[in-house]
Design goal:
2 helices; OB fold (Dihydrolipoamide Acetyltransferase, E2P); 43% strand; mainly beta; six-stranded antiparallel β-sheet
Length: 108
Amino acid sequence: MEDIKYDEFKKLDLRVGKILEVEDHPNADKLYLVTVDIGDEKRKFVAGVRAHYKKEELIGKSCVVLVNLEPKNIRGIDSHGMVLAALSEGTLGILSVDRELPAGTKIS
């Protein structure tokens, strides 16, 4: 893995996001459309977590999101950020915060 400079890392806009709504992606069995409150706005993300989470488990969850990622069209839907998760031996876990923090709180 290549090291990056601290100044490169500082460019990442990581925030606490609160998942408000979860819908099935109309064109993919493994994807959800997730509406996330990032503090100053609400955004739609495409998240590949459908095989690991039920909708009810995600709604209201506070998680770590990357918000300054350029939009990407995933199976016909634009995703305006990324919900961060870890995957190990088939088990996926969404990165979350261990205390209640307001949506939009910057992570540094």
